[in-house]
Design brief:
By secondary structure, the chain is mainly beta. It has a single domain, classed as Porin (Beta Barrel), CATH 2.40.160. It has 1 helix and 11 strands. The strands form 2 sheets. The chain has an 8-stranded antiparallel β-barrel with strand order 1-2-3-4-5-7-8-11.
Length: 201
């Protein structure tokens, strides 16, 4: 029910943008490098994809409001390293539908800065250790993320964006060993670095 409400609100906002003057929109495609703080592993070793659509509306000479609807792959990976005596394989795969809402500052014709929040809805997940499926610690179906990034305009139709995407709440429903503190509680938190190409239609 909550997902339907969020998607309805997003659709209504999108419709409002579309009826406004001077709006811009298009598609995005990017690569994701992610990790999970608190899973006892380190490094942005999990690769993924980020793809969807976007629409933005100028609200001043230097300001824009941008909304997106995209699929994003997050998670964590640990590969064996025999030199370090590590023979274990671990992988966490998380697939979300993400709805970012961003404020964008237009620094000049080349560079733009952005910050905002993104609502994540979990649509699929898996977790394995040495090839065995783990189901003991369920994941939350929804999460809120903090986003910040930089865009470089290549042409009028293409820009390259680099963004950090960090969950504000634990991705787990319950506490697990290795939990870390973030803002207002202990848990496991998803962190992602995203490099995307934005195409204006």
């Amino acid at each position: 029910m909550k997902k339907r409400i969020y998607f309805l609100l997003f659709t209504l906002c999108l419709a409002g943008f579309a009826t406004a003057q001077n709006y811009k929109g298009g598609i995005k495609l990017g690569l994701v490098s992610s990790q999970v703080a608190g899973d006892t592993y380190s490094g942005f070793n999990k690769a993924g994809l980020n793809a969807g659509g976007w629409i933005s509306l100028p609200v001043g000479n230097k300001s824009e409001i941008q909304m997106e609807l995209a699929y994003i792959q997050k998670g964590s990976r640990e590969n064996p390293d025999q030199e370090k005596g590590n023979y274990d394989t671990y992988i966490m795969r998380l697939g979300y539908v993400e709805m970012p809402f961003l404020y964008r500052y237009v620094y000049n014709q080349r560079f733009n800065f952005e910050t905002g929040l993104g609502m994540n809805f979990l649509i699929h997940h898996s977790e394995t250790f040495n090839g065995e499926e783990l189901n003991d610690n369920p994941f939350k179906r929804q999460n809120l993320c903090f986003l910040a990034g930089l865009s470089i305009n290549i042409t009028d139709k293409l820009k390259i964006n680099f963004r950090t995407d960090n969950s504000l709440f634990s991705i787990r429903q319950e506490k697990v060993s290795g939990d870390v503190w973030r803002f207002w509680g202990y848990g496991q938190f998803s962190d992602a670095l995203i490099l995307s190409a934005y195409f204006r239609l």
